[in-house]
Specification:
The complex is a heterodimer of chains A (about 280) and B (about 70). Chain A is of the alpha/beta class. In chain A, about 40% of the residues lie in helices and about 15% in strands. In chain A, strands 2-1-3-4-6-5-8-7 form an 8-stranded mixed beta sheet, sandwiched between helices. In chain A, helix 5 crosses helix 6. Chain B has one domain: Alpha-Beta Plaits (2-Layer Sandwich). The two termini of chain B are about 15 Å apart. Classes of the chains: A alpha/beta (about 280), B alpha+beta (about 70). The interface between A and B is medium-sized, with 31 and 22 residues.
Chain lengths: ~280, ~70
C-alpha cells in the first residue's frame, strides 16, 4: 500500500512550505507503519506545537495535538492507560529539547515504550525563524542576526545519557535509511528516539544561505557519514548517522504492571479477609 | 511506448514546485512544467526506483508498475 492510504486527504495539500523536509519524514513514517502492518486503530500519534506538530493532523491514526513541548507527557498518559497501543510522537527540535527538554529527559529515563521523532531543522519555523538549542554556534536566525554563540545539544548523546534504549539519527536525504530506522524504532520495546535532519528552506535556508531544498538535501548527503564507516573515520568533522544505541532494558509499562500485580497479591482482600480480590 | 514499465503519477494540486524530484531523479525523468509543477517528461526512462515518491515532501508522486496492471 502507498503512504497516501494513511493520510487525511481532505487536509492536502498540507501547510508545510515548498521543500520542507517534514513531509518526507511523514512519508517515510507511513511507509514504515505499512511495512509493519500495524492497524491504524492501534496507533496514537501525539504532537506538541510547531511545524512538526502539524503531522498529527495529516496522519490518519488516533491523533492528539497537545501543548508545546508536552507531547511526551500526554503520550505517557495514553501509554499508561492503554499499553497495547503504539505511540508515535513527532516533535520539532525546539519542541523536544527546549520547551519539552525536561519531558524528553524523563520519558527517556523511564524507558517508556514509545517512538519519539525529533524533526531537527535547527530553527523555529512556525514562529518566524528563531534559533533553537539544536541550531549551534555560527548559525544565523532572526533572533541571532550576528549569528548564534550557543553551542548545540547532541540529541543522540542526550538521549543515551538520559536512558533511551534506542537512538538513531538520519536525514531526509537518506529516505531508505529513514524508513528502516522508523521500523526498528517502532519494533523496539522501550523509549526510542529517531532524530531526523529535516530541511527548512524558508527560514534556516534563507538565513544561512543554504540554498533551496535540493541544495539543502545535498548538504545533508555531503556533511554526514554512517557510523563505523571509513568515510567517518577519515573525516571526523562529518556528522555521524546510524543507530547509536539499541539495548534491552526494563520497560516502564511492564514494570508498572508487575508492581500492580505484586501489590494486588500482597494487599488483596482475599488474603486479608478471605474474599475475592476486586480488580484494580 | 511499448518498453515503458513504470508510470509516474503526479498530484499537481499537491505539488509545491520545490524541485526535489527533478534534482534527484537518477534518470532525469521528471521536469517542472510551465506552471512550475512536477511533470513526467521521460516516463520511458523511469526505472521504478521510487526515489522521487519517497523524497517528495508533498506526497504528490506515486510510481505505478505498468506490468502489474497489464
Amino acid at each position: 500500500m502507498k503512504p497516501q492510504e494513511y493520510i487525511r486527504k481532505r487536509f492536502f495539500p498540507h501547510l508545510w512550505c515548498a521543500g520542507c523536509g517534514h513531509g518526507t519524514v511523514l512519508n517515510a513514517l507511513l511507509r514504515s507503519v505499512d511495512e509493519l502492518e500495524i492497524s491504524k486503530e492501534d496507533i496514537v500519534m501525539v504532537s506538541g506545537i510547531g511545524c512538526s506538530a502539524r503531522m498529527a493532523g495529516y496522519a490518519d491514526f488516533h491523533t492528539m495535538h497537545t501543548l508545546h513541548g508536552r507531547a511526551l507527557a500526554f503520550a505517557t498518559g495514553v501509554k499508561m492507560s492503554r499499553p497495547e497501543l503504539q505511540l508515535l510522537v513527532p516533535m520539532g527540535d525546539g519542541d523536544a529539547l527546549a520547551i519539552g527538554g525536561n519531558h524528553f529527559l524523563h520519558a527517556a529515563r523511564r524507558n517508556i515504550d514509545m517512538t519519539a521523532i525529533i524533526l531537527n531543522n535547527r530553527i523555529y519555523g512556525m514562529t518566524g525563524g528563531q534559533f533553537s538549542p539544536l541550531s549551534g554556534a555560527g548559525i544565523s536566525a532572526t533572533t541571532a542576526p550576528w549569528t548564534s554563540i550557543d553551542p548545540a545539544f547532541d540529541a543522540m548523546k542526550l538521549a543515551q545519557a538520559a536512558g533511551a534504549s534506542f537512538a538513531a539519527r538520519t536525514t531526509t536525504f537518506h529516505v531508505h535509511e529513514l524508513q528502516k530506522y522508523f521500523t526498528r524504532a517502532i519494533q523496539h520495546k522501550g523509549f526510542s528516539v529517531v532524530e531526523v535532519f529535516s530541511q527548512c528552506p524558508t527560514y534556516f535556508g534563507r538565513k544561512n544561505k543554504a540554498g533551496e531544498a535540493p541544495e539543502m538535501l545535498q548538504t545533508f548527503k555531503d556533511s554526514t557519514a554512517k557510523l563505523g564507516s571509513k568515510q567517518l573515520e577519515e573525516n571526523p568533522q562529518l556528522i555521524p548517522r546510524g543507530i547509536f544505541v539499541e539495548q534491552e532494558k526494563r520497560e516502564y509499562g511492564e514494570a508498572y504492571a508487575q508492581l500492580c500485580e505484586q501489590a494486588r497479591e500482597q494487599r488483596s482482600p482475599k488474603r486479608r479477609y478471605g474474599k475475592e480480590a476486586p480488580r484494580c | 511506448m511499448g518498453s515503458q514499465k513504470w508510470q509516474i503519477l503526479i498530484e499537481s494540486g499537491w505539488c509545491k514546485s520545490c524541485g526535489i524530484c527533478v534534482a534527484f531523479c537518477p534518470v532525469k525523468a521528471i521536469v517542472l512544467n510551465v506552471e512550475g509543477k512536477a511533470m513526467a517528461a521521460k516516463e520511458g526512462r523511469c526505472t521504478g526506483c521510487t526515489l522521487c515518491e519517497r523524497l517528495c515532501p508533498d506526497l504528490a508522486i506515486q510510481i505505478q508498475s505498468l506490468e502489474a496492471t497489464a
